[in-house]
Amino acid sequence: MAAKGDRLASELRGRLSPEARIYADLSSRRLYARDQGEPPRFVERVLLKQNIPDLVLQPELPDDVSAALRWARARELSVVPRGAATFGLGGAVPTQHGLVLDFSALRSIEEINLDEQTVTVLAGTRWADVAHALKPYGLALCTYPTSWFSTVGGWVNTGGYGVGSLAYGHFKDQIHRLIVLTPQGELKELTSDDPEFEYFIGTEGQMGVVWAVTLRVRRAPQKTTPILLQCDSVESAFALAHELLQEGFQPYHMKYLSAARIHEINELLHSSEAQIPERESLLIAFDEWESARACERWAVQSEITVSSLYHAYYLWHERLFPMRPKRLGPGMLASETVLSAEKAPEFIKKAEREGARFGVHLASEAYFVGDGQVLLLPAFTFNSRNVFSEFFVASLSLVLTRLGIALGGRPYAIGIWNTPFARAKFGKKFDELCAYKRKIDPDGLLNPGKFFALPAHWSSLMLRGLPLSIGLEIARLAAPLVRKFFDPTPKRYPAREPGRPPTAISPLLDLLEYNETLCSRCGSCVPVCPAYIYTKDERTTARGKLQLGLALLKGEKLDAAGAQALFYCMHCRACTDVCQSSLDLVPVWDELERRVEARFGKDHQKIEEFVRGVEAMQIMPGTEYVPPIVKVLEGVAYGHRDAS
Which site from 195, 265, 411, 448 is most exposed, i.e. has the minimal number of CB atoms within 10 Å? Predict the structure, then answer.
């Protein structure tokens, strides 16, 4: 396949701008074969045999995307758009090799319009980028996802509900304009009034490629103030939420956390003094301090437990780190269902019983998103070291999705693994989407093997109609017996203290394997990495290096370019600072470089050029790097196009 990739790269190169980057070597392409999700290894090996792309393109201009789409169509190659790959259902995973369009390096604040209160960004811009760029101008995002380092274009394709949805509704209501490219390579500008606009929202890259997004923003609140209310039962927690809204309070954000979820948070705190009472809880955030205090007084008068302000602020901060429990697994899966708040307690209690059948403990959260609905996220950690146990427990995620649908809900997202439930999400609109797909992409080359239809492979029968229903019911009924033989209980790795060698933990654990297993692949390390900002090469990121390091450990081949890329590191600890799994990564890079140098050697000249390049860009390690705003002119702040 390497020769094929080189041949395709040579053919495509002449159609692109000089700044566009093509990756054809295996060490790069293999990093695009998966996303944040953790499908069972057995299913991944059988169903996704063609998940390594032939080619990866990082476009610099819309013309690059247009040319690539037309070229791929002429060659009948599939095309998969990809952002930060924080979507856990396989939405950015290739199923037929083909071409991956990587927008993760396309970070640019194109325009901040202070008069109209809008911001225009390119698709690869992170939510953290946008928030930090708006802050000096007294503006803030209306809504945003909990994956703070995911891309704006990615949420257009997959998201909809997140922080602030209670006050501002679905994300599509905040989109003023989209610039997209159709599968034929046609550039389109769509406003929210355009009849085609909705076909590009939440359809996971099936209808076209998002290039730029114009968002409505708001005046930044002086201070967001959270309060934490606690109850004795899930029913009383949701009844309290309903009563609070009926009383006329208008929170910016409200989230339910189960007692089990609070227990996970306490497990990760490692401090008995900071422990949060493990009860059913409501985290409520107000944009006005006076409203928060009024709600607190009302709660006290109603004899509702108000937890400490410290606990409230801690949980508010943790809203951006949903993958921390991965460290308790090391396997972690979840189900995402949109359901009426009235039915939510019933779902949560039934889901907990299903979890008990499978031998895992569910830790649930629910985001109140307006119109009497909540986005439910029951998650569970499990022992991923046993292949059969992993395959068996993974079916619980589908069991929970089916449960939510039975109670009148719908799956939040589709990807590969929820394709059997796509019609349940869209209802009658699904036929309309199918018709538009046939019209705009008749050959089905854009992001195939998901959403509308699973990959054309015999193993996909396991995820279709009657076989799926029978399989899930068998899994449910057999669960109590099976878990006696294959224990799914999480097998926690002990925490590794800075500077402590892996042999001090266990002589059986290799340092690379230890950290790769605990990595949540959340992508938080990518946009803050000076090496990635400079090279735009996924192999230089912590996420990429851990995957390549594990491949090296297993004796897999690593090409010379991939080996050299592993030395491009400033050892600045930016990745460690944002790591949701709290991994101490600098010792890992020391060990990885030692092993790579012993096998492949070390090009000191290239490393020196890399260091000088990073220093010349004046990239300061940290979590607040954003493309700079160059100037403000007549109420409009313009972004620097070269700052990505």
Answer: 195
Among the listed residues 577, 497, 592, 599, the one whose alpha carbon sits nearest the alpha carbon of residue 546: 592
Query: Are the folds of 109-220+633-639 and 502-602 the same?
Result: no
Class of 502-602 in CATH: mainly alpha
pLDDT score, position 458: 66
Choose which CATH entry (3.40.30.10, 3.40.50.1100, 3.30.43.10, 2.40.110.10) describes domain 2-102.
Answer: 3.30.43.10
d(CA 631, CA 644): 17
pLDDT per residue as tens digits for the range 98-141: 999 999 999 999 999 999 999 999 999 999 999 999 999 999 99
Residue-level pLDDT at 638: 55
Dihedral pair phi/psi, residue 112, rounded to 5°: -115, 115
Whole-angstrom Cα distance, residue 292 to residue 288?
7
59 is written with which tokens?
């476009």
Torsion sign (Cα): 612, 613, 614, 616: positive
Give the 3-state DSSP-derived string for 229-292, with helices as H, strands as E and coil as C: EEECCHHHHHHHHHHHHHCCCCCCEEEEECHHHHHHHHHHHCCCCCCCCCCEEEEEEECCHHHH
Q: Taking each helix axis as running N to C, give the angle between helix 511-518 and helix 586-600, from 0 to 180 degrees, rounded to the nearest 10.
A: 130
In the three-class reduction of DSSP (H, G, I as helix; E, B as strand; rest coil), residue 23 is classed as strand
Query: Which tens digits make up the pLDDT trace of 513-547?
Result: 778 888 888 888 998 899 999 999 999 999 999 98
What are the residue ranges in the chain where pLDDT is below 50? 493-509, 623, 630-631, 633, 640-644
pTM: 0.91
- The helix (run of H) or strand (run of E) holding residue 214 is strand 209-219
Fold assignment, 109-220+633-639: 3.30.465
